[in-house]
């Protein structure tokens, strides 16, 4: 049956492609050879947790997939672009990939290395072998073929065109670092260091230095704590209102407790409960320069995707003055930073904890499923996982690995059902 499916695809290609690879799918002649690979299963772009989860769920249903990854390893964000002290911010039961739970001896909040170990074991268990070093430059649905044409460039410069019936965008919410530009940045960089958290590893590299951390999300807060622990003098830029919650309350994880309460209470009441308990445990954060948003933490998360900060000890350092809270940046100078409140201070380095963004609009050529503005599915969760013509999205729910796992299962089931229908049609045609 698989041979028949592949022969059908290759038959279509024969009318539109020169398999000697001198013509692209626009019909234009190319100066360099192009390989054409016909896949009877889906092509998945991105070998992070989302891509691995989708490939595993498909394999459980007997469907092979092609997994393309621009880096040289799985979960490259975790392996190459995270700091050493990082732990999962949520309990492990909310960060498991489908089918395989975390080892029982792992702590409630696994370390970065433990999570990477879990992902590598996961890939081995399902015999997932990504095509590494493949940077996808474009993916477009060919109306004539009724197929997706995915063009990637390997590390050696070889261009490969993957032709498939289903395409899964699994590059996720954190594909590219967000690096803001400040007036005078070049002047500061002439005397000091500026780096994004994707290049930050340990506070030991900044011992004894005055460091300004820009961004008060979970990463910014934790980097400040890490800098303190290594003898640096960190300051934290807090420009927007932020919800800070204790990581645990009433003897259990705050996230787990929230999920439990939402089964019985409306989100507005759960938010009120979280804020009351947080104030009792953490105190009034506004006195520390951390104003809370008007909407509650869960409502804000649902509407904007902005995740509340789960405190792991940073607030205590702010209270003692080991971490200083600053207003927004107006401009940078040599050795100095001028803030919106008019104050100027000297710093040796700036760490940009300014997050990441989707890169889907840079390679996916379609206008109905993904927003060109932010690279997220236009339709909100739980409906944003499926588009038209066999296009799918996983890892864009703004609900972390938990949301990605839900979508991976749905995608595998949908592709399996579509494949069964397709095979039925071919069988019926062959019999007739």
From TrEMBL:
Signal peptide start-end: none
GO process annotations (BP): auxin biosynthetic process
Key words of the record: Auxin biosynthesis, FAD, Flavoprotein, Monooxygenase, NADP, Oxidoreductase
Gene Ontology MF terms: flavin adenine dinucleotide binding; indole-3-pyruvate monooxygenase activity; N,N-dimethylaniline monooxygenase activity; NADP binding
Enzyme class: oxidoreductase
InterPro entries: Auxin_biosynth/cation_transpt, FAD/NAD-bd_sf, Flavin_mOase-like, NAD(P)-bd_dom_sf
EC number: 1.-.-.-
Keyword Oxidoreductase listed: yes
Family annotation (Pfam families): FMO-like
Keyword Thylakoid (UniProt): no
Family recorded in the similarity comment: Belongs to the FMO family.
Protein name: Flavin-containing monooxygenase
